Amino acid sequence: MGIGNLLLVPEADYNLLGRDLIIEMGINIEVVNEEIKIKLCPLRVEDEEKINSEVWYTPDSVGRLNIPPFSVIIKDPETPIRVKQYPISPEGKNGLKPEIERLLSKGLLESCMSPFNTPILPIKKADGSYRLVHDLREINKRTVARFPVVANPYTLLSRLGPEKQYYSVIDLKDAFWACPLDEKSRDYFAFEWDDPVTHRRQQLRWTVLPQGFTESPNLFGQALEQILQEYQTGEGVTLIQYVDDLLIAGEAEDKVRAESIRLLNFLSAKGLKVSKAKLQFVEEEVKYLGHYLRKGEKKIDPERVKGILSIPPPKSKKQIRQLLGLMGYCRQWIENYSTKVKFLYEKLSQGGLVKWDEKDDKHLKALRHDLVNAPVLSLPDLKRPFYLFVNTDSGTAYGVLTQEWAGKRNLLGTYLSC
User: Fold this and answer.
1) Cβ pair 398, 390 in contact under 8 A
2) pTM for this model (two decimals)
3) Is residue 61 part of a domain?
4) Reverse transcriptase domain: which residues (predicted)?
5) Among residues 29, 49, 151, 247, which is most buried (max CB within 10 A)?
């Protein structure tokens, strides 16, 4: 049985692998620091035969949840938000055309005449295709947001415990687009599209939760959480959800394998799509929420560390805040974090331009050194006692949380500081 269409070009110096075939075979191509990384789908044939093939994302498929449409509340809706479309190059328009036609054919976009308008951007992907990005910043500013009921990623992994040895990570593809948008709210998400072939200019709007909308993660996350209440995990297996990323963990390989297959079929029955290319299936080490998990331990994603190390010293308060945001995600691995970033917070409280000197370079270098040499942290065992060691220094308090097992004291998933 064929799994895709193959294009043969005898004059080509290299074999061509079509995008449809890449998706069908679950091949994931990533460009990281000018290096190309290729990952093949880890599924065995006997495993895939047990999984409903409808769960896998393809360009011709779209997820759809059977839930009530979401409505959006905008402040001062009688004053429309109107932002002119940015100029788009001919290459960008031609790249967006097949994607917009696909979204229209699947009912994710529809024609409209709306008083609202915000711009779109064409973003070129590693495989040469284009992604549609809708700049919804002005809409986000006027949105009356619901209280965000999203799990804390810092404490979420504490549910795993050190005994877990095997993991599966399921990435839901275009998950927000599976959530219908109430018709009365759709005009807020309109944009202008100028077809490069027909030269017809029209407005289009989303019929589903758009990507880039401030409420989409919270609304989808709550919808999925309610759906997962119908799902009961087997004994000895833990299921963790963070928005559209799912993690299955267990001590026994066969149980994790069976649970992963059962969950994939459950998601398919509910109308969701999974990226086969990004599936991590019954592995001893997985990447989840910016961490690498292995045998009850977690460490920082090296790519995240490289990204922080590549940032030059900040020259403005905005850049300082950006640096603090990135460093803050890694604070669990940095001993006495609050003391070591105090010099950055002091600069935010100073008036005028940011002044950066050799002393600041030294402090920043020390932070980078701590990141490069970050320890591997143990996941907590909630059945064992905890030991908290605290200290104060220069107006800051910090502590280290540990547990004792196998005759030694293990550093847990956080350095505490304030």
Assistant:
1) yes
2) 0.82
3) no
4) 104-293
5) 247
Task: State how beta strands 120-124 and 130-134 pair.
Answer: antiparallel
Confidence of residue 330 (pLDDT cuts 50, 70, 90): confident
Tens digits of per-residue pLDDT, 135-147?
999 999 999 999 9
Domain co-membership, 263 together with 387: no
> Cβ distance 169 to 250 under 8 Å?
no
Pick from 137, 108, 113, 112: nearest CA to 209? 108
H-only helix segments in 146-199: 153-156
**Measured distance CA(217)–CA(151) in Å, rounded:** 11
> What average pLDDT does the structure give for the chain?
88
Say if residue 130's pLDDT is above 50: yes
The residue ranking higher by pLDDT, 7 or 386, is 386
Pairing of strands 396-405, 377-378: unpaired
CA 36, chain centre distance (Å): 20
Which helix (H) or strand (E) segment holds residue 392: the answer is strand 387-393
Q: How much of the chain is helix, strand and coil, in % rounded to 5?
A: 30, 25, 40
The number of beta carbons lying within 10 Å of the beta carbon of residue 105 is 11
Q: Which residue has the tokens 């963790």?
A: 240
Q: Residues 376, 270: one domain?
A: no
Q: What is the total residue count of the chain?
A: 418
Same domain for 189 and 116: yes
Q: 162 and 281, same structural domain?
A: yes
Does 342 fall in a domain?
yes
Q: Which domain CATH number covers 308?
A: 3.30.70
Question: 289, 242 in Cβ contact below 8 A?
Answer: yes
Number of domains in the chain: 3
Residues ≥6 apart with Cβ < 8 Å to 349: none
